[in-house]
Amino acid sequence: MKKLKHDEGGMFFERLSTHRMVASIKEPKQIEIALSLKHQLSGVFLLTGHIGVIKGYVDLFNKHQLPVFLHLEKIGGLSTDAYGMDYLAKVIKPTGIITTKTNVVKTAKKMGLLAIQRFFLVDTEGVENIFKSLAQVEPDIIEVMPARIPQMIGEIKKFTTLPIITGGLVYERSQVMDGFKHGATAVSASKTDLWREIYATEENIIRNIG
Question: Residue 73 CB: number of other CB atoms within 10 A?
Answer without folding.
Answer: 15
